[in-house]
Amino acid sequence: MDTNNIVRVPSKPKQVYTVLEIAEILQISKSKAYELCKQNLFRTVNIGRSVRISKESFDKWLNEQN
Asked: pTM for the full model?
């Protein structure tokens, strides 16, 4: 396979987290992460049954927890 012809597309900066990602960041359970989402501490978006968390609002909230 000739790898000289592979086009690399630069990845976009992440704009949202999944519930599992914030659970991993905070080292908490997935169910506890869902509870945090329901408290409206940061911006969330429901897409069908999926929940996405605004990276910007989550990071801001997390940095204010000191």
From this structure: 0.78
Listed in sequence order, the residues at least 6 apart from 62 whose beta carbon sits closer than 8 Å to its beta carbon are 25, 26
- Greatest distance between any 2 Cα atoms in the chain: 52
**Rounded-to-integer distance, Cα 47 and Cα 64, Å:** 27
Q: Which domain covers residue 55, as residue numbers?
A: 21-66
Kindly give the confidence (pLDDT) of every residue in the chain, 66 residues in length, as a single tens digit, with 9 standing for 90 and above.
556 778 877 788 889 999 999 999 999 999 999 999 999 999 999 999 999 999 999 999 999 997
Task: Say how many domains are in the chain.
Answer: 1
